Amino acid sequence: MDSSNLCQYIVFFLIVLLVTRPLGGYIYRVFNERRTFLDPLLLPVERAIYRICGINAQEEMTFKQYSISFLLFSLTGTLLLYALLRLQTLLPFSDPAHQITPLTPDLSMNTAISFATTTTWQAYAGETTMSYFTQLAGLAAQNFLAGAAGLAVGIAFMRGLSRQKIDTLGNFWVDLVRGILRILLPFSLLGALLLVWQGVPMNFQPYLTITTLEGTHQTIAQGPVAALEIIKNLGTNGGGFFNVNGAHPYENPTALTAFVEMLAIILIPAALTNTFGRMVGSARQGWLLFWVMAFLFFVGLGVCHWAEQSGNPAISHLLGQAAPSMEGKEVRFGTGSSVLTAVVTSNGATGSYNSAHDSYTPLGGMVPLMNMLLGEIVFGGLGTGIYSIILIAIVGLFLTGLMVGRTPEYLGKRLEPTEMKLTMLYTLLAPITILSLTAIAAITQWGLAGLTTNAGPHGLTEILYAYTTSFANNGQNFAGLSGNSPFYNLTTSCSMLIGRFGQGIVALALAQAFARQQRRPETPGKLRTDTPLFGTVILGSALIVGALTYLPVLALGPLVEHLQMLH
C-alpha cells in the first residue's frame, strides 16, 4: 500500500475517532433533555412545533405505540412523495424537454418507498427524471424526515436497554423533532455552505447546452444540488442528484468535498456507540462496540484495497507489470479514494458511491456486498448500526451460554425465550428475504431480463447485490442490472420495506423486553460484555452467522468469478 493512500485512511479514521466522544455526548444530551449550546436558539422553535402539532412532550409510548407512530409517519411520507412524483409535470420547474424518463406508477412507487425508508435505490437517472422542485421538496425533504425517523428508532432501542421495570421507550414525535431540529438540520446547513464554497451548485438555473471541443452539443443540469448532497450523506440516504452520484463534479468537485462527504456518512453512526455507552451507564460498553466496528472496517478496507490494487492478472500480463484496476474508478482522486468511499458507503447504509462497484474486481466488489450482508454492524445507518451489532452480540452470548450451561445476560438482564425469539427473528429476516428474492429473480424471465450486460456468476452477483442493498436500506447498486422494470420495482420495494420496518419493529420489541427487566448485579461467574474477549465473541458470531447463511451464494457469484479471472 502506497504512503498517500495509507495516510488518507489513517487520517480519516483518526478524525472519526476524535469526533466520536464529543458528538456522542451531544447526541446523548439532545435525546435526554440535557442542556446544549443550541438551546437558546432552538428550544423556542421546538416548543412551537409541539404546540402546533399537538404533541405532548411529556407523554411516553410503549413499543406498540412507538412502532405505530413510526409506521404511520413513514406511510404518510411515502404517499405524499408518490403523489408528488405522479404530479411532477404539473408542478413548478417541470422540464419535459430534459426530464425524459417517465415516472410510471411502478417506478414512482419504488422511488417513494426508497426515499421514505432511507434506501434511495434509484432505478432512474436523476437529471433526466426529476425536476428541481421534486429533488428539493420531495427527495431532499424525505432525506431529512426518513433519516430522523430511523435515528429515533435507534435512540428508542438504546433507551429501552438502559431502562429498568418500565414499559415505555420515549416519544417518537419528540425524538423525531429533536433529530431533525438539533442534529440533521444544523449540520446540514454547515455542510451545505462548505459544499457551495467548494463549487457545488445551489441554484434554480435552467439546463445549459454547450458545444464541446469536439464540436458536439452537451446538456448540463444544474439545480439545488448542495441541499440534497449533504443530507443524503448525513441522513445515510445516498440518492444522487445526478445519475453517476458522487462521481459527478457538481456533487463532488474537489478532494476536500470527497473527504467531507465520507465523514458526513460515518460520524453520527460512529458517535452513537458513545451515546449508547452513556445511556447504559458504561462508556466501556460503547467503546467495545466502536472498536469491533473499527476492526471490521479496516479488514474490509484492506481486502478491497488489495483486490483493486492487484487488478486483473490478464491485464497485468499484457502490460508486463502489476496494474491496479482503474475501470469504473474516480480517476480524479485515484483508486484509494474510490476504495475508501466504497467501504464507507457500504458500511454506512448510504449508497453515495463515487465509482462503479459493478466494475470492481470480484473480491473487491464482494467487500461492499459482504458489508451489507453482515447487517450494517460496521457503523451502519442512523440507529441501525447500534441495534444490528447488539443483536449479533446477543447471538454470541446465547452461543457462549450454551457452552457453559447457564442463562446468558447482557447489561445485567437475562436473555430469556422472549428475547432470543426476537433475536432469531431479526437474524433470519435478512437471509429469508434476500435469498428468496434472489432465487426468484434468477429462475424467472422477469428477473433474468434485467441482466442486459452480464450473465453467469457476475449476473448472479448483480441480482444478489440489488436485493441486499435494498434490504440494508443502502441504495447503491451494480449498475449492470437494469432495475427499472415492474418486476424489480416491486420486488426491491418489498425488500426495502422488510429491511426497514421488519427489523426496526423487532428491535423495538426487544428493547421493551429489556426495559421491563430489573438489572441484576455483576457476579464473578458472568461473562463480562465490556472486554476484548467479548469483542472476539461478537466478531466470531458475525462471521459464523454470515458464512453459514451466505457462503453458498457467494461461492456461486463473486468467488467463482474470482477463480475464473485467475485462470
Automatic annotation (TrEMBL):
Belongs to the KdpA family. Pfam families: KdpA. The chain crosses the membrane at residues 6-28, 66-85, 136-158, 179-200, 255-276, 288-308, 377-404, 425-448, 487-511, 532-557. Keywords: Cell membrane, Ion transport, Membrane, Potassium, Potassium transport, Transmembrane, Transmembrane helix, Transport. It comes from the Bacteria. InterPro entries: KdpA (IPR004623). It is a multi-pass membrane protein. This is Potassium-transporting ATPase potassium-binding subunit. HAMAP family: KdpA (MF_00275). It is found in: Cell membrane. Part of the high-affinity ATP-driven potassium transport (or Kdp) system, which catalyzes the hydrolysis of ATP coupled with the electrogenic transport of potassium into the cytoplasm. This subunit binds the extracellular potassium ions and delivers the ions to the membrane domain of KdpB through an intramembrane tunnel. The keyword Membrane applies. The system is composed of three essential subunits: KdpA, KdpB and KdpC. Its main location: membrane. PANTHER family: POTASSIUM-TRANSPORTING ATPASE A CHAIN (PTHR30607), POTASSIUM-TRANSPORTING ATPASE POTASSIUM-BINDING SUBUNIT (PTHR30607:SF2). GO terms for cellular component: plasma membrane. GO terms for molecular function: P-type potassium transmembrane transporter activity; potassium ion binding.
